[in-house]
Design goal:
about 120 residues, alpha+beta, Glutaredoxin, 4-stranded mixed β-sheet, 5 helices, 4 strands, about 40% helix, about 10% strand, Thioredoxin-like_sf
Length: about 120
């Protein structure tokens, strides 16, 4: 399993602590330093069963600068999907964290202890 983290994030540190406490075998990806490609983001979205706007941190300054809350400029449908993915690749701080890719091919946004345990159970 792999976990995408920002070390400055308390939710990420909490997820790592729980993984360690459970003796999980995982790889850490500091996604701000090792930025995922558009294809990697699409793959994780497929594993999550979510759309890019579902994992976008809209309160970040980059989101405000891009005006992501403007649904006319940033449609939340198939017509806007590639643009959203590109924005996440160009501004990785916008990606919700932590994300755990589980061994069974699925993924979870692991912001809660329950979500981390869910990933461990997969």
């Amino acid at each position: 399993m792999e976990i995408w983290i920002n070390p400055a994030c308390s939710k990420c540190r909490g997820a790592l602590s729980l993984l360690d406490a459970e003796g999980a075998d995982y790889t850490v990806r500091r996604y701000l330093d090792d930025v995922p490609t558009e294809d990697e983001i699409r793959a994780v979205l497929d594993r999550l069963g979510l759309e890019p706007w579902d994992i976008t941190r809209t309160q970040e300054q980059a989101a405000k600068d891009l005006n992501l809350k403007d649904r006319e400029a940033w449609p939340r449908d198939a017509s806007g999907r590639d643009r959203w993915v590109r924005a996440l690749a160009e501004h990785p701080k916008l990606i919700q964290r932590p994300i755990i890719t589980a061994d069974d091919g699925t993924a979870v946004v692991a912001r809660t202890e329950e979500a981390v345990r869910d990933a461990l159970a997969r």
